[in-house]
Amino acid sequence: xxxxxxxxxxxxxxxxxxxxxxxxxxxxxxxxxxxxxxxxxxxxxxxxxxxxxxxxxxxxxxxxxxxxxxxxxxxxxxxxxxxxxxxxxxxxxxxxxxxxxxxxxxxxxxxxxxxxxxxxxxxxxxxxxxxxxxxxxxxxxxxxxxxxxxxxxxxxxxxxxxxxxxxxxxxxxxxxxxxxxxxxxxxxxxxxxxxxxxxxxxxxxxxxxxxxxxxxxxxxxxxxxxxxxxxxxxxxxxxxxxxxxxxxxxxxxxxx
Amino acid sequence: xxxxxxxxxxxxxxxxxxxxxxxxxxxxxxxxxxxxxxxxxxxxxxxxxxxxxxxxxxxxxxxxxxxxxxxxxxxxxxxxxxxxxxxxxxxxxxxxxxxxxxxxxxxxxxxxxxxxxxxxxxxxxxxxxxxxxxxxxxxxxxxxxxxxxxxxxxxxxxxxxxxxxxxxxxxxxxxxxxxxxxxxxxxxxxxxxxxxxxxxxxxxxxxxxxxxxxxxxxxxxxxxxxxxxxxxxxxxxxxxxxxxxxxxxxxxxxxxxxxxxxxxxxxxxxxxxxxxxxxxxxxxxxxxxxxxxxxxxxxxxxxxxxxxxxxxxxxxxxxxxxxxxxxxxxxxxxxxxxxxxxxxxxxxxxxxxxxxxxxxxxxxxxxxxxxxxxxxxxxxxxxxxxxxxxxxxxxxxxxxxxxxxxxxxxxxxxxxxxxxxxxxxxxxxxxxxxxxxxxxxxxxxxxxxxxxxxxxxxxxxxxxxxxxxxxxxxxxxxxxxxxxxxxxxxxxxxxxxxxxxxxxxxxxxxxxxxxxxxxxxxxxxxxxxxxxxxxxxxxxxxxxxxxxxxxxxxxxxxxxxxxxxxxxxxxxxxxxxxxxxx
Lengths: 256, 582
Prior knowledge:
The complex is a heterodimer.
Chain A: H1 3-9, E1 13-20, E2 30-37, H2 44-55, E3 74-77, E4 80-83, E5 97-100, E6 107-109, E7 112-113, H3 116-121, H4 147-154, H5 164-168, H6 170-174, H7 181-191, H8 199-208, H9 220-224, H10 231-251
Parallel strand pairs in A: 1-5
Antiparallel strand pairs in A: 1-2, 3-4, 3-5, 6-7
Helix pairs in contact in A: 7-10
Chain B: E1 4-10, H1 14-26, E2 32-36, E3 52-53, H2 62-72, H3 79-98, E4 113-114, E5 124-125, H4 131-143, E6 150-153, E7 155-163, E8 166-174, E9 180-190, H5 211-219, E10 223-224, E11 229-235, H6 246-249, E12 253-255, H7 285-297, E13 310-313, H8 318-325, H9 327-336, E14 346-355, E15 358-360, E16 372-374, E17 379-380, H10 393-414, H11 420-441, H12 450-464, E18 468-469, H13 471-489, H14 502-526, E19 535-536, H15 544-547, E20 549-555, E21 561-567
Parallel strand pairs in B: 1-2, 1-9, 2-6, 9-16, 15-17, 18-19
Antiparallel strand pairs in B: 3-5, 4-5, 7-8, 8-9, 10-15, 10-20, 11-14, 12-13, 13-14, 20-21
Helix pairs in contact in B: 1-4, 1-10, 2-3, 3-10, 5-14, 8-9, 12-13, 12-14, 13-14
């Protein structure tokens, strides 16, 4: 059954209160309300698609996989950073449901935010395998990695770059220079990978850019993460290592 | 004219990223760019679950993977391409390992492999059941090492610039601003993924609208084997979310409404408590989906508001195995069906999953247009023939992404600069495209609406090109698509704003899908036989005399489509019966 056909069968409805903003026409954002069918298996994304297809074709938002893995459809739902494809309308009954763009990012239009800042920060933490011996010949076979060694970093490898943690992070909101939860978690993902030897290099980058110190361990990033990555613990581990390194640096100047 | 590059890669999924990294490594002097309508890590590779096939185990051989793939393709795959693919897949998967892909491991730290449908040996590498996600993010993050790689994220390509049989670049809309740009390139690689959204019920993401196929077709490059659409046996009802074949590889059973393992009635072997390779639940996707359809016809499926379903039973596998090997399956079932597969049956039904056909290429990804390459699901090399085996598509993106990248780099070195006349010709094309977008589409409040045409197209395709097809239905569907094309010409984009105009992208995507859908039906109508995923009730037998051939679809200048046959490359494996479970 298609979305439209499903909608025709629905009886109950719920109101979406959606933030609208169109840069050429609007001087500031405003709220627009839409009545959408309330069905138990409908997500907020299904509701938005109903609006787009049947009520208002101009509403703009990103979405793709509708199964919580592509990271496109992050938005604030009921005041909380959420994947709209993984958030059900029925959890907000009888409504209304507030749907707003993610916080802490410039808004391009409606629910679409500009995440260029994250994409510029991501390469700075060098989220790739770094080896002292350069690239090892692939013909030499695989690097052995036991299931326990895999477990050591696998949680941090689950980040889908959905930006919910940046939206939730009060520090990033105040200090845009803060490298931020997802990027630091990805740095730690490689640090903890038994195949990687780049931890020191990444630490230098984070210390030098002061990308690390801002975090005050509020833990909002971990609470909103849809993939249980726990960026807060990554940041905490990183800070500890950085503090140890600074002590070392005083006692043992580099190269010693 | 806007920016100029040596190689422009359209699409940022696995095939596009693999090509980009390959060229960046081997030809750092070349100017490479990647353009995609989504950020690379949003690409649909991200949704692949089960794994990637490549011979690794000691008891496995290259020869057996080749044979499985050829027989799985119902002898329509090109055997030279399949040999190259099977030979190079293990190297590519190891390369991913070196780039950091978190492959699941054996206790001693070696790569683990699992069983998969239609495969005679365990050879599917996996990263739990989020293989595509990990593969994509590994590639994306590795690509960030190459800071010279220019990315155009969230740019929508609307046209290929082609003059005298040679590609020269693209025209694209920058979504954030709505600005339209021409970008020139000596070589263009299409890596835009599949086209599942042509159908109403699909595992595919919203972005899988066949863009690269439509771009190529309109530019004069033919599409190949477009009648072969893969239905995956196990999608969740309503959402169509994929439940990976790995669920069956790990020991899951398919049950009808009586709790009976019905695949035994469809010449797929006898039920055993633990999985047997190339048998029962580990049969190929085409045959398993056809068996489910058979149960539905016999009234032995379960009716739901979202169509008839059968059940996937994982309960006997236990929580520990499910949480280790199939955690995403459990997460998806809990979230979207509110059932726990540890304790409950999963309702599933066949769902459109993959396009075997695509842009016609040779073994190096080259299309008949000079400088234009294609790789991944967009392309049809063909290694998949009439039916792709599960876990062959991820290594396909890597092997042929790398090959297309190498070939494009070599081509760029072989061609000189454009003449002034060519420069003028492509400038005129670009201006023409800008005018088309600005005056014929954006802000035109047409009498037809995109969502309605799209829903009708999807309905038409499900009726005409489902698991079983017949001549009259295909002809009716083709007629309906013709009417929909006429309606599409009257559709407008009422939203005239420039910033992130998703009404515009939806219209452009629908135009692409209509062309792709027409290619599917013309091919399906002319293939009067049953082979692999193309089952004709009016021609129920495979007919090697007439149809051991690929079908190419060409688009003429007047917009009409015509087909042409191309021989299948047979090297050492003569066509035979496909045997599973006996």
